[in-house]
Amino acid sequence: MKQYPRGGIAEPGASLAYHTGSWRVQRPVHVHQAAPCHHACPAGEDAQAYLALVEQGAMQAAWEALVSANPLPAITGRVCPHPCESGCNRGQYDEPVSIHGIERVLGDEAIRNNWAYPVSAPAADAPTVAVIGAGPAGLSCAWHLLRRGLRVVVFESETEPGGICATAIPEYRLPAKVVSAECGRLLALDGIEFQPGQQLGRDVSLHDLKQQYAAVFIGAGAQQARPWNIDGVTPVDLHDGLAVLKEWTRVGQVPPAARVAVIGGGNTAVDLCRVFKRAGASQVMLVTHSGMPGPGVPDAMRALPRELEQAQEEGVEILAHRGVRRLVLRGEKVAGLETVHMKKLPDANGRLRRVAFEGTESLIHVDMVVPATGQDVDGTGFEELLNGQTYLSANAEGATGADRVFAGGDVTGQAGTVAAAVGQGRRAAAAIARALGKTAETPRRSEAVVAFSALNTEYFEAGKRHHGSSLPVAERGIEREVEQGLGLSEARAEAGRCLSCGNCLACDNCYTLCPDTAVLKTRAEAADGSHYVFDYEYCKGCGLCANECPTGYIQMVPEL
Amino acid sequence: MRQALEGSQAIARAVALCRPNVVSAYPITPQTHIVENIAKLVADGELKCEYVSVESEHSAASVALGAAAAGARAYTASASQGILLMCEVLYDIAGLRIPMVLTCANRAVSAPLSIWNDHQDSMAVRDAGWIQLFCADNQEAVDTTIQAFRIAQDTDLPVMVCVDGFTLTHTLEPIDLPTQQQVDGFLPPFVFARALDPRKPLSVGTLATPEWFTEARHSHHGAVLAATDAIVAADRDWQQVSGRGCGGLLQVDGPADARIGILCMGSVVGTLQDARDAMPELPSARIIRLRSFRPFPAQALREACAGLDQVVVLERALSPGAMGIVGAEVRAALYGVAGAPRVQSVAAGLGGRDMPLTLYAQLIALAQAPATTDFAILDVELDKLPAADRYPEAAVAVSSGDRS
Which CATH number is A6-32+503-558's, of 3.40.50.970, 3.90.76.10, 3.30.70.20, 3.30.1330.60? Predict the structure, then answer.
């Protein structure tokens, strides 16, 4: 007969006879969820993955992880409105991680060190895809086609690649050498052929391209001035915003004016204001229906808050919540604007509608008005596809409905940002590769997003965001970049602020705190990518591990 | 050589003579000078020992448990709320059959907050399965502490040495401290058969299913009962070494033909003996001092009560809503014994209230009263209470005639 030893001592492992797992009514499971930054990124970057590498100092590996989604980080790191940071859970803790700052450092480092893009040359007989437009959508599509073993020929109407980034974003915000370096490195890859100065409908035809190439991707952008008038009135000397920016970028000039009103609330409008200021205009006003960005503003301007701030520092006046009611013309030229206060208010059905407040009209004296309220697609060369519509219709995968013809970027009217264009280019590349039988991959199923409430913030330390410095107003000019960006060590420290939402940190909390030693630490056995496995023979389902997991990587699943 | 020592200091020196390997303590109230003096001995290099200052009594007891389980002679001290905070670990130590020694400098338990002497703290943990020995004076505290280390290792049980707080711990008394040689001759080096050894891993504190728990309790209960032999043997052997005994399980003092007995624990025995000498006009009672409360020496108690008509149990704690704790146990021990005396139970000296010589006269009067007092707090002053809180006398003192 087995006997009870004095004091209940036992041989090691004797308690293994008690399979306490049978007490369990809920089990802990590892659930990889998307970090909100990843979820929010239109380009599909998994910021958290590359931030972890930056924190370790593995900068090149971080850049490689980054370009697996977005091949243009030096550009997006400067111009993207970074919805990743708006989504960042850290924003609810102290301040969001400066993801764009780190992205920019990685992009710049890749250029500086000439890091090789992680891709091998396609087979000599690989199918070749024609890409129309060397803007963000086209370049992204080309890159992701190359990654899938396809050859690409990129046709560009301009002499330089980069699209809007090269032609219409001022130097102080996005230096031309950054654009040409990043795009140039990409286009120099073995498997990509770049044909500048080739305009669709003039130098090449869609019909011929379809004949010669396995598939065609249209990333022609939207660069045609949208007709603009107030009650049918258009000044004879009206300048389209995008055209003014292009002129400035190309020759460093803008039409002469002392008092300018720019209409619009996006980054183009803000860029225009700042450019007119630099060109010597005495008074520059930005007139917009939208409000200044801020907490609880439902109709905030799309422009980056920091850009707006800098514009104001430089003397630009922002007339927010203001609509243009009337153009005052002297002869056929503009002499002033009558504006009225407007705001979005809920109507009888609770829907927000823009309402003008009668009696708040005021007159502004200007000698030039520049609309920056968006562009239309120039359908030259694909008129049949456009079929009289404003934008080229395409589904989420870029398919236009026409055989082997895909589209992405501003031409589809679905992008609006460089990052979104990059994302569309990537998804279209995957769809093209699938159509050509080069890949079996299916569109990624979107994962659940880790909410801030799923994190255990007790395990994180408060830490100030690294903002990077910007040039003092007095030193700002035409060429020097206003945003100085983060230094390497700042970027690394900033990456350390990432909360790693939804990912295993290997922090050992679950392993240490499990009261039943039912969390086993073995990377070899943890096939789910974590560092631990649950021993369900003994796990009682108490939930301590899930509660103490800093990143929300462990979830309790009911078993009853 | 006799020297004037404060009780706490004397106990500290006694502990040091026993060559402990680990002393752990929480140094703040309710603590005594005992651990402070041990800390000083360690700091001065007079005692080679791992002194662990911890953040709570729970930790103090836990450290001692772990140290003893690893084969160290371990010691700690506490009192009052400190004992209560240790409670969980005290059960563990006893249930795991870990030999170690703890001094309980007996004090009242709050609320209301009190720092003074009574026995409620050690009574609160009486069922933890420890040996509990109550000391009459500081000399006995020294001698019992030394004996306790041997009893612990002879029985694989922890021993709580109960010493009246302030009344003993903070008063000076001429003490005959034994020599190191005397103690070494009496107390063999600590050897724990189940000591943990990393080369031969063992699991301590494993789960006992209903299939085993009963047997664990049975063997533990038997061990505490059987500890009477080790207590008596240790006292006898120490008497041979030092010339002083502590009375073994209990001490009986008074005329052989006495009809009245007074039973007590702790230092009040001296007061009762002095009062009896000072009041020759009153009947001379047999004073029975219970030294071992756990194990409860029922047989020795029956023998000590032989020939008595009356026993009044005087104690310094109570079980509110029932009666005196020792009183109930004495009554139970004598139940059904032919010719057993009538047992009355009273409490006094709670929360440090002085116990004057006149207490003796009150106890004698109680013994001589025709009505039986099941329980009363003898020195309560009812006029200090609002009328609604005085309660009818019947509720606190049942008078139902002679039970014998």
Answer: 3.30.70.20
Task: Identify whether the C-beta of residue A208 lies closer than 8 Å to the C-beta of residue A381.
Answer: no
From the list A9, A13, A18, which residue is nearest B204 (CB)? A9
| Residue A201, amino acid | G
Measured in whole angstroms, the distance separating CA A112 from the mean position of its chain's CA atoms is: 23
Q: Which residues in chain B have Cβ-Cβ distances shorter than 8 Å to A9?
A: 194, 202-204, 206
Compute the distance between CA of residue A214 and CA of residue A431 in angstroms, rounded to an integer. Answer: 13
Structure tokens of B246?
A: 């502590």
Residues 6+ apart with CB under 8 A from A7: B95, B96, B97, B98, B156, B194, B204
pTM of the model: 0.69
Q: How confident is the model over A71-94, as pLDDT tens digits?
A: 999 999 999 989 999 999 999 999
CATH number at residue B127: 3.40.50.970
Q: Where are the beta strands (DSSP E) in A307-400?
A: 317-319, 322-330, 333-346, 352-356, 362-365, 368-371, 375-376
Of chain A residues 13-52, which have a CB less than 8 A from chain B?
A: 13-15, 18
Q: With an 8 Å Cβ cutoff, is A4 touching chain B?
A: yes
Total domains, chain B: 2
What's the rounded Cα separation, in Å, for the pair B281 and A537? 77
Size of interface A-B (CB pairs under 8 A): 45
Same domain, B345 and B215: no
Nearest by CB to residue B194, choosing from A9, A13, A18, is A9
C-beta atoms of B212 and A13 within 8 A: no
Q: How far is Cα B289 from Cα B330, in angstroms, rounded to an integer? A: 12
ipTM over 0.85? The verdict is no
Query: What is the sign of the dihedral through the CA atoms of B278, B279, B281 and B286?
Result: negative
- CA-nearest of A129, A166, A132 to A147 is A129
Is A128-222+377-435 assigned to CATH 3.50.50.60?
Answer: yes
pLDDT tens series, chain B, 404 aa: 799 999 999 999 999 999 999 999 999 989 999 999 999 999 999 999 999 999 999 999 999 999 999 999 999 999 999 999 999 999 999 999 999 999 999 999 999 999 999 999 999 999 999 999 999 999 999 999 999 999 999 999 999 999 999 999 999 999 999 999 999 999 999 999 999 999 998 888 888 889 999 999 999 999 999 999 999 999 999 999 999 999 999 999 999 999 999 999 999 999 999 999 999 999 999 999 999 999 999 999 999 999 999 999 999 999 999 999 999 999 999 999 999 999 999 999 999 999 999 999 999 999 999 999 999 999 999 999 999 998 865 545 544 444 44
Tokens representing A39 are 């979820």
Nearest to B202 among A12, A15, A18 (CB): A12
B203 in contact with chain A, both atoms CB, cutoff 8 A: yes
Q: Cβ separation of B209 and A7 shorter than 8 Å? A: no
User: Per residue in A33-81, pLDDT tens?
Assistant: 889 999 999 999 999 889 999 999 999 999 999 999 999 999 999 999 8
B371 and A CB contact within 8 Å: no
Partner A contacted by B170 (CB < 8 A): no
* Domain chopping of chain A, boundaries: 6-32+503-558, 36-116+455-495, 128-222+377-435, 229-372
